[in-house]
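I would like you to sit down with the record closing this message with an eye to the fold:
=====
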Amino acid sequence: MQASMTVINGNLFLFGGRHLDILYNDLWIFNIEKNYWKLQSMSGEIPTPRFDHAVDSDGYAMVLFGGEDVSGLKNDLFIFNSLTFKWKMLTPKSDIIPKITKGACLVLRFPLVYIYGGKTNSGPSGDFWVFDIGSLEYTELPSF
């Protein structure tokens, strides 16, 4: 499946993934207390159907980075508002950005997004980045 899942306000948010050759960009929300799934409609700049992307949440926000879609590996970054169900692409102010990557690790501690590793077209990556949502700028951090 190679989808992503995170917890927001006590619910599980499952985005994207693939089955065989079909890629998805739908959002399913699992209500833990009531034990049911809901297909959630969304608006805004919805990420393309993809798999092996990275997500995390903080408060009512979820961020998504990279993955792979029909055109190949990605390095785009999106933020999702779980109160309005609206996506927005976070466009960096400069060309200093992570490589196109799938399978990265991601942590959101608003307003900072930490991205580590993954697999690029040339193999595994140990790159470590932080993105500031307020300034829309990436900074490369030291790797180990």
